[in-house]
C-alpha cells in the first residue's frame, strides 16, 4: 500500500481539513444568521433600539453565558472535532446528537476512542442533522395548520405548560446521567441560589457558576481510582 | 399582530431561513464525504456497518425531533415559521429560543402572543435569539482547535472533573429554571407557588423518572421518553389549572 498509515494521515491531513471546514462554515453561519435581524431593522425600519436589544441580550447572557463555554468543552470528548463543529451549528446536542453517537458506536461495536468509533460518530451525526432538518421543515410547514386544527384546551396546555414540563423532564435526564455525588452537587447549588435573594434569570447563571466552582473544589485531582472500596 | 405575521411568514424571511439551513446541510455533507473517504481508504467501516450507522442515526433522530416539535409548534405561533426554522435548525435548543424570544419581547415592553407584540418587539426577539445563539458559534469557532490539542491531556489528566462539570452544572441550572417556572419569589418572605405549573413540572419529572427505569428494559422507550414526559406534564398542568380556575 502506497498510502500513509492511518494515524499519520488522520493527524496530518484529516484533522486539519476538518478544522478548515468547521471554521469556514461557522464563519459563514455567523454572517448569514445576522441577516434576518439586519433585514427587519434596516430594510423594514423596525430597529428597536440598542438599549432594548442590550437589555434582552443581557438577560439571555446571564442564562446561557456559562453554557456557551462549558458545553463545547464537556461534550467534546464524545463528539470529537467534526462532531463538535456539526453539533454546535445544528443544536439539539443533549437530546439528539449524544444519544445518536453512543448508539451508532454500539451498533458497529466500536471501541470508545478508536478511529472506528469516530467514523461512526461523524456519519451518525451527519445523518441525524439531515434527518432532523427534513423533519423540522415538514413540521414548520404543517405546524401552522396543526395549531389551527388543535382543540383549544390542547393549544392552551402546549402554550402554558411546555416549559415547566420540559424543565422537569430534562432535569431528571441530567440527574440520571450524573453520578450521585455530581447530581447532589448540582441540586445543592441550585437550591442555595434559588433560596438566596438573587433574582430568577441571573440566579440560573449564578447557580451554574457555583456548581462549576464546587466541582473544581471537589475534583482537584483523581485522588483515587474510580472503584473505591470504602465508598 | 397582523402586520407582524405577514412579515414573520413573508418570503424574505423564508429565503434567509433557507440560506441558514443550506449552510448546515452543506457542512454536514462535507463532513460526510471526507469521513466516508477516510473510512473507504483505510477500510474502517464495512458497507454493512455503514448502513447500520445510517439506520441507527435515523431512528434515534426521529424520537427527539417529535419532542422538539412540541416546543417548536408554540414558537411557530409566536414568531412565525421561518424564524422557528432557522433558530431551531441552527443552535436549535427550542427551549432556549423560546426564552430568548420572550426576553427580547419583554425588553421591548411587549408580551409574546399578544397585541403588544409589534414589529419592533418581534425584531427585538430576533436580535436576542440571534446574539444569544451566536455565543455557541463563537466559542466553538475559538475553542475546538485547542480542545483537540488538549484532548489527550484532558482525558488522561482529570476526566472526573470534566464529567462533574458536564453533569452537576446542568442539574443546578435546570433545577433553578424549573423552580423559577413554578414558584414566583419576590424576596424571601413572599413566595407564591403556581400549582398548575408545579404540577406540569413534577409530572414531567416523574414520568421521566419512571420511563428512565422502564427504558433499561425496553430500549425503544428511551427515544420516546421526552415526548411522553411532555404529554404527561401538559395534561397535569391543564387539569390542575382547570381545577383551580
List the helices and strands and how they pair.
The complex is a heterodimer of chains A (231) and B (245).
Chain A: H1 6-43, H2 50-90, H3 93-107, H4 115-149, H5 152-177, H6 180-195, H7 200-218
Chain B: H1 2-8, H2 11-42, H3 47-79, H4 81-89, H5 94-107, H6 119-157, H7 159-182, E1 183-186, E2 190-193, H8 195-217, H9 220-244
Helix pairs in contact in B: 2-4, 3-4, 3-5, 3-9, 5-6, 7-8, 8-9
Explain what the structure shows.
The complex is a heterodimer of chains A (231) and B (245). Chain A has 231 residues and is mostly helical. Chain A is 82% helix and 0% strand. Chain B is mainly α. Chain B contains nine helices and two strands, in the order H-H-H-H-H-H-H-E-E-H-H. In chain B, strand 1 and strand 2 form a beta hairpin. In chain B, helix 5 packs across helix 6 and helix 7 packs antiparallel against helix 8. The longest helix of chain B is centred in the middle third of the chain and has 39 residues. Chain B starts with a helix and ends with a helix. The model of chain B has no long low-confidence stretch (mean pLDDT 83). Classes of the chains: A mainly alpha (231), B mainly alpha (245). At the A-B interface, helix 1, helix 2, helix 3, helix 4 and helix 5 of A face helix 2, helix 3, helix 4, helix 5 and helix 6 of B.
* Contiguous helical run count of chain B: 9
Provide mean pLDDT of chain B, rounded.
83
Largest pleated sheet of chain A: none
Mean pLDDT of chain A: 81
For the largest interface, the chains and their residue counts are: A-B, 157 and 162 residues
Shape of chain B: globular
**How many β strands of chain B by DSSP?**
2
Oligomer, anyone? heterodimer
N-to-C CA distance of chain B:
28 Å
